[in-house]
Structure formats: C-alpha cells, structure tokens
Amino acid sequence: MNKYILSILLFLFLSGEATAQRVSGVYRLHMGMREGFNVWIVDGAAVRRDLYPAFLYGGNPQRYPFIPHNEMWIDNAIAAEEFEYTIAHEFLERSLMARQGMSYENAHNRALELECAMRRRDDSLALAHERELPSVSPTDCDGV
Predict the structure, then answer these.
(1) Which 3 state secondary structure label does DSSP give 106?
(2) Where are the domains of the chain?
(3) How do residues 62-94 score in pLDDT, each as one tens digit?
(4) Using N-to-C axis directions, what is the helix angle for 104-132 and 83-100, rounded to 10°?
(5) Which of these, 7, 16, 23, 81, is most buried using a 10 Å CB contact count?
C-alpha cells in the first residue's frame, strides 16, 4: 500500500474513534429500533454546542458524519407532536441519499414534501373526528 492510502485509512480510523468519543454525552432516551436503526432522543443543545451549531430537529448518518452509522437522532427540543414527522423525514432523507445517491438538498426537499403530506393527512383525520363529536353548548362551567 502506498503512503497516501495508508494515511487516508489511518485518518478514517482515527476519525471514527474521535466521533465515538465526541457523541458520548448527548444521548437522552433510546426510542427503540426502526428499520435497523437505533432511534435516540439527543440533547440538541449539546450537539449544537459541541458538534454542529446548525443541528435542528433531527439527523441521520448520511447527512451528519458524527452520527453513528446505525443511529437516527432526534433533538430533545422538538415538540412531541413533531416526533413522527421528524422520524419519517430523517428516514426518507437518509434512504434517498444512501440508496439513490441524491444530494442532501434534493433529499431534504423530498422529505419536506413527505412531512407536508403527513400533516395534511393528520389534519383531515382530526377534522373528520371533530365532525363526529356531539355539539358542545357555548356556556362555561357556571352556565353563562
């Protein structure tokens, strides 16, 4: 092996060790496995402070090299209502980049389209549910 290839391999090996050491303090809650990935709620403030200042909502290893290859990260600062949308976004984004070689920008835009479709579907379900509920009298607890 020539020196150039050896240098690259050494760099990649050491980068992996450094990444594993850097991420050790960010984990908050393991949310289980999905599609072969460990889904973690992470301390988003720590990620922004120590790893990447622009980290928001979530991340996947195709986009962020500091995220271990078998993990998906979700920022603990997001609302609980955003969890499923963010998970779907990260999985689609990662898949498009890894399997189809799509750029981050294009994969991200497609994942945003998925989120919008999911939100529209959920809004429709919520409206349909509300239509089935009985009418509520427009009075307060004192009958006013």
Answers:
(1) helix
(2) 19-131
(3) 999 999 999 999 999 999 999 999 999 999 999
(4) 150
(5) 23
Residue 124, judged by CB atoms within 10 A of its CB (0-12, 13-18, 19+), counts as exposed
Q: What is the pLDDT of residue 2?
A: 52
Q: How many CB atoms lie within 10 A of CB 7?
A: 11
What is the spatial distance between Cα 134 and Cα 57, in angstroms, rounded to a whole number? Answer: 37
Q: Which helix (H) or strand (E) holds 34?
A: strand 27-34
> In 3D, which of 60, 18, 17 has the Cα closest to residue 42?
60
Question: Is-contact 73 47, C-beta < 8 A?
Answer: yes
> For the whole prediction, is pTM greater than 0.90?
no
Torsion angle in degrees (nearest 10) through CA of 132, 137, 139, 144: 180
Residue 128 pLDDT more than 50?
Answer: yes
